[in-house]
Every structure is written in C-alpha cells, then in structure tokens.
Specification:
Elements: H1 2-13, E1 17-23, H2 34-43, E2 46-49, H3 53-59, E3 64-67, E4 70-73, H4 91-108, E5 116-122, H5 126-137, E6 147-150
Parallel strand pairs: 5-6
Antiparallel strand pairs: 1-4, 1-5, 2-3, 3-4
Length: 151
Amino acid sequence: MKTLKLQVIAFLSILMFSTISCIEKNEQQTEDTSLEKAETALTYKSEYFQLKPEIEEAYGYSHAVKIGNHIKISGAVSMNDEGNPKAVGDLAQQMKNCYADLEKILTHYGYTFDDVVKEDVFTTDMSLFWNTLPTELKFIKTISQLARGWV
C-alpha cells in the first residue's frame, strides 16, 4: 500500500498534460446557435481513439474523441504503455513525450499542431515550466493564434 501511495505521489508530482481541441482545416467557422449545436450533436457519430488501450480501458476513458469536425483530446502524461512515469525529474523530456503522444493522436485524425485552436497545460512547477517552454513552442507553430491556459 505504501508503495502504491509513493507511485501515485511520484506520478502526480510529474503530471503535465494538455487538453487540445481541433477544428477541421476547411470548416468555415461560423457561430452556432443552440439549435445548430443540438443538431450537430445528434447528426455526428463519435469516433473514439485509444492511444494506450490497456490503461484507458482500466481507467474508463479514451485519449481522444472526434465528433463531427471537432476533436477533443483528454490529455497527455509522460508515461509508458504500462502507465508508469517516464523521464522523472526531466520536464523537457516529459514535454517531448507528451507532445509526441499528442502528435500520434492528431495524425490519426489527419491533423497537425497547426490545426490546434485550444491548449491547457497543467504543471506542478510553474517556474520550471517557464524555463522549459521553448521545448513546447517547437511543437505549436501557430502560437499567436492559440487559445491557451497554463495552470
């Protein structure tokens, strides 16, 4: 039990994940009314993508879901296929690992980081994150057009 608690604490201490939303490149952006949003939800079938199926099934989630022309990505954590933390103590490598996983998801749906319109980053050490930020900026090229949240 003590070992499990230590693993959870270690895992949470290196937690850094991004939530990313994409809109199809060719989609003409218009404001949806509530009725249009409701029709969209009824019209499109959800397409789920599991990046690490065993972990996702064990915890009851999917890494991504596409509904119509929109993709919702649940996030990324620097972990291996068994769910164990990778690159403990190395935030730059953790970020590279996270963005590599996010790129796999985007590629699956035919998107790139240039299609990302929203990103949220959660970190346990904001000053370390600021020092590591250039690593992240290499992945997101449309930085000035991205809605972002950093916590």
